[in-house]
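Troubleshooting: if your tokenizer reports a length mismatch, compare your output against this known-good record of 261 residues.
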Amino acid sequence: MIELNWYITLLIIGAGFLAGFINTLAGSGSIITVPLLMFLGLPATVANATNRIMIFFTNIVGVASFRQQKVFKLRENIWLSLPAIVGAIIGAKIAVDINELIMTRIIGALMIFLLFTVIYKPQKWLKAIGENTESKFKIWQYIVMFFVGLYGGFIQIGVGVFLLSGLVLSAGFDLVKANAVKLFIILIYTTFALGIFIYDGQVNFIAGLLLAAGSTIGSFIASRIAVDWGPKFVRIILIIVILSAAIKFLGIYEFFKSLFV
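Known-good structure output:
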């Protein structure tokens, strides 16, 4: 459990704000929030589940914005989200039953992988591909969505990169439409995954709602201002957080500490 006081409360809201801001500018905002919840004392499984409250509310805001701008068709994306829902339900059930230490190590290893996605900026090559393809639907596209949902249901961190890749490479969406569809699919399958986590008693509602409050504000502000230094600033923060989390959750800090004790 997290012992809330005024500065911990502000820290959680601030992390949510930063995550919402980052998700709007670059993606992978959960790299900030999940490690923070773990640093504050939540078990890895609970932190992973609690983070979904923030994802749920933030994506409602994002989807509403894209719907208002008529970027995508709702009926088309409902069908596209079905295999992701099935995958997310399976992934969430795996996350519920997994050993705490294993989940911690998985998150640590994932930090290392995501470090490279941040450094090499996948949005650039995705954009280049998306500008030269046409939207198309094939059976294997739904298979891709199933596995993306499986991963997203299991652990949300970094799923945006995989989902954008799947939508651009398998469906031929341009990056703008892919981002809109990404938010919609994540919102739909998160609803089911969050239900499983709540049923299993792995959600800290207070921390989750505080994250959501900050995240929706961050997303709202980021979508309405243009900041030239924004992406560079985001990458620096993400790299620092990723390295710190990887050192912590892979047990590297404890290993070196034991050498000198």
